[in-house]
Amino acid sequence: MVAPFELTDDNVVVIIGTGAGGGVLANELAQKGVSVVALEAGGRYLPDDYVNDEWASFGQLAWTDTRTTSGDWRVAKDFSNLPAWIVKAVGGTTTHWAGASLRFQPHEWKARSSYGEVEGANLLDWPIDADEMAPFYTRAEDKLGVTRTNGIPGLPGNNNFKVFEAGAKKIGYKEVHTGRMAINSQERAGRMACQQTGFCFQGCKWGAKWSAAYTDIPAGEATGYLEVREKAHVARILHDASGKVTGVEYFDEAGELQMQRARVVCVAGNSFESPRLLLNSHSSMFPDGLANSSGMVGRNYMRHLTGSVYGIFEKPVHMYRGTTMAGIVQDEARHDPSRGFVGGYELETLSLGLPFMAAFLDPGAWGREFTTALDSYENMAGMWIVGEDMPQESNRVTLSDAEDRFGLKVANVNYSDHPNDKAMRDHAYRQGAAIYDAVGATRTLPTPPYPSTHNLGTNRMSERPEDGVVNRNGRAHDVPNLYVSDGSQFTTGAAENPTLTIVALAIRQAEHIASEMNQGTL
Amino acid sequence: MIETRSLKTLTRRQLLSRGVAAGAGLVVGSGFVAGHDGAWATEMDAMKPESFATLVRMARDIYPHDRIGDQYYAAAMKGYDVPEEVDFAQDGIEVLEETSRAAGFDSYLNVGWEADRVAILRGIQETEFFQRVRGGLVTGLYNQKEVWPIFGYQGESYSKGGYMHRGFDDITWI
């Protein structure tokens, strides 16, 4: 029941990207009877297609089209053309995400007011707050089937969690559990329970983890109001003389340029592709790029400060067995400047298979310091640091001189740590090591940030048009029928994994768009 | 995945009789490189056997794992034994040999102690040759499924129903 819409149909909402933002928005609009054409750059892969082999899966799912990098972050040196580990497929990075589903803390919606002025940072309060978002979080948690919400029990702890939990409690942490995870701990919504298979990052072959690819997308298609066009690479967004957007040019699977007319355009291509598309859509009316009169498109790129800590023990852990990220310490997520930084961080269990451990443990390193760590792979436990990084105007996506196979300028991603980010990461490294030391680690390894999975903030939401790109509904300040629907609309990053908030914002945005269309104001 | 090819037509004794020991654990013969006991061997398609043995030694010195046999390092290096890559590899090895001679040894394979070989490698670690060999090993060595059990990594479990009933929470020492 796939709805075929004509390229000339100018009554459709065109959504660019089908991940946590675009995929959910597409379904939510379709459920309301709004006609949607979703353009997805990648192909469609479902649980039977997923490969439980790290490099093979990476080849299948990852966005590997060239990007360039600059700035003093280590990713620019070690992975100069791979600043992000995100997915190019129907469902976007919801195939790859680990499932951690946390609400922002109330103060994080108001980072500028909560933290005060931080030199070199471009902090700003979101134009929305925790109370306004609460009902949408509730709906998002129900949609995703988040454990420890809606009466859903937590996941059982695996070996990696047991080491993490014992160490954390020993050093006095209280908020330690197997997380709020969008992974079924019991059968729900026609999807089975987690079988502790590992490989959460490679697409869940059981379908136990929520992914838009096999939930919202087919649900939307079943209504007859959603058409997903796969392998459609969007080149630019068009507008008329009044400054309203009128359609989208894209290259289809055969490489032919097509133009889909549109009543509304929603951009949801993740925080590199979304600003890249707006910048590449420059025109005589919008010489600096679409929706960019503020000059803020591409700026304030955030990636969470991240980093990992691995501990090696005398006896085996087998950290890779079971759910990858079902384990969290939340005690450090609070805002407590006495630690030497503003904002907070979460510690979450993490494991990589041997091939990715070799690639990410200390990129570029060689010799016995490196190999003796890998020799103890079986006895390793691992955790990931997710903390709020400071928005900085100079951390930004711009158009590179390099071009992709369609002749479109690719994104350059410039990022350098703020001193607050470094102070927080150092604190987290120490606390992470203390957790493992408390239960007898013989060696702990601080591990640098991987290519980013949490890409945020390059089309930030702001109350005043001069401070950002979109308003409280994700609507472009400059263009009345253009929306941003992904994590790029984040004003600040908070300490939490962003997917739940992206989904909640998409549900909320669907209400707004449908309402505006019904009122004839869109 | 790169495979080593065994010289099936030769008996182990014949193989060893046709080669000479080169450094620790490798036998270099006419057109082939083999393990010290002939348990594995690989025929050369484009590269001089001495050069390939040097590459294998270098690979082990970059990522030394004492419980991993040379055949896995050889498999990871086999991609250089093709016409398109051999000149790049031979040129790089020549630089390695020059650096070894400057350090007072007659060849890299004859540098007896790992610490001395590592010092020589430090001298060339910024070269494109070293970086390509090192970078290639990250996947070429660690993505060989045959080495995973040596590290205690079991890989995929989906085909067996996951780790739900296969030890996801079997830790007892914590």
TrEMBL record, chain A:
Belongs to the GMC oxidoreductase family. The keyword Flavoprotein applies. It comes from Roseivivax sediminis. The keyword Flavoprotein applies. InterPro entries: FAD/NAD-bd_sf (IPR036188), GMC_OxRdtase_N (IPR000172), GMC_OxRtase_C (IPR007867). Residues 444-465 are annotated as: Disordered. Residues 87-305 form the Glucose-methanol-choline oxidoreductase N-terminal domain. Keywords: FAD, Flavoprotein, Oxidoreductase. Residues 391-506 form the Glucose-methanol-choline oxidoreductase C-terminal domain. GO terms for molecular function: flavin adenine dinucleotide binding; oxidoreductase activity, acting on CH-OH group of donors. It comes from the Bacteria. This is Choline dehydrogenase.
Automatic annotation (TrEMBL), chain B:
InterPro entries: TAT_signal (IPR006311). It comes from the Bacteria. This is Tat (Twin-arginine translocation) pathway signal sequence. The lineage of its organism: Bacteria, Pseudomonadati, Pseudomonadota, Alphaproteobacteria, Rhodobacterales.
